[in-house]
């Protein structure tokens, strides 16, 4: 296990809706569930946390509700099951920003999406 492990957390308008979207697109599972907070897992490893925008819990607000969500943020996921992700994206009628293409810098295929809250989500093959 690496000494530092990323655990990104997104502020979202509707945790349960966002959770369903990420579960469907990334073939993730719910590790917590609920309307205020969620942990999404792949192969029993947390890949993403979701937090309701208006809920402060013990730490106070995480984002300003007056500002657009996702501005300047790109969530990048790498998977050897790239073709399966693309198939799920198509079935879900997800908002595709840039369809499947080869990244000229990395030399791999990727697809760029917007999640229900406007975050840019990139899924790439290794």
UniProtKB/TrEMBL annotation:
Transmembrane segments: none annotated. Residues 3-126 form the VOC domain. Pfam families: Glyoxalase. SUPFAM superfamilies: Glyoxalase/Bleomycin resistance protein/Dihydroxybiphenyl dioxygenase. It comes from the Bacteria. InterPro entries: Glyas_Bleomycin-R_OHBP_Dase, Glyas_Fos-R_dOase_dom, VOC_core. This is VOC domain-containing protein. It comes from Actinoallomurus spadix.
């Amino acid at each position: 296990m690496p000494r530092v492990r990323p655990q990104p957390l997104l502020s979202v308008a509707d945790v349960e809706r966002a959770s369903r979207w990420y579960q469907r697109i990334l073939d993730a599972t719910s590790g917590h569930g609920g309307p205020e907070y969620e942990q999404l897992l792949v192969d029993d490893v947390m890949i993403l946390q979701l937090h309701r925008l208006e809920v402060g819990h013990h730490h106070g607000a995480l984002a300003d509700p007056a500002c657009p969500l996702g501005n300047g943020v790109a969530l990048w996921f790498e998977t050897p099951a790239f073709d399966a992700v693309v198939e799920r994206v198509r079935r879900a009628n997800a908002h595709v920003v840039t369809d499947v293409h080869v990244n000229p810098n990395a030399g791999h295929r990727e697809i760029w999406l917007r999640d229900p809250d406007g975050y840019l989500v990139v899924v790439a093959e290794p």
